[in-house]
Specification:
Blueprint: H1 2-22, H2 28-33, H3 50-76, E1 112-114, E2 121-123
Antiparallel strand pairs: 1-2
Helix pairs in contact: 1-3
């Protein structure tokens, strides 16, 4: 359900962006007065102009966008009872290797410990 709602949300947002970009701005009539683009771009949508059709599409997309946003927020905020880490086995602490006896002559292993990370003997 979440995935379907997310796809609808994305499609509505793309349609709403297109509808907003196709609309004529409020200052377009001033620009056409001074020799700007003629009204030929507005005849595509009929004599009523794009404002009525595109405005309705924008309003519908905005309402759908808000509703899907609220629904997605509600669905993502629910308490989750399952995690993606449920199938992963629990990690155990690494076991330290046993202390090896000294192989050098004249150096007893007493008082010397091996660092398990570096393997270097250190005196205590």
């Amino acid at each position: 359900m979440f995935t379907v709602l997310l796809i609808i949300h994305l499609l509505v947002s793309i349609v709403m962006i297109g509808a907003v970009l196709l609309q004529v701005g409020k200052g377009a009539s001033i620009g056409s007065t001074f020799g700007g683009a003629s009204s030929s771009s507005q005849t595509i949508f009929g004599s009523a102009g794009p404002s009525t059709m595109l405005a309705k599409i924008t309003y519908a997309c905005a309402a759908t966008f808000m509703l899907t946003s609220l629904a997605l927020t509600y669905m993502s905020g629910k308490d989750r009872t399952r995690s993606i880490m449920d199938d992963v086995p629990a990690a155990t602490a690494p076991v330290a290797p046993p202390e090896a006896p000294s192989t050098q002559p004249g150096t007893p292993g007493v008082g010397k410990k091996v660092n398990p990370l570096t393997g270097i003997r250190a005196s205590c």
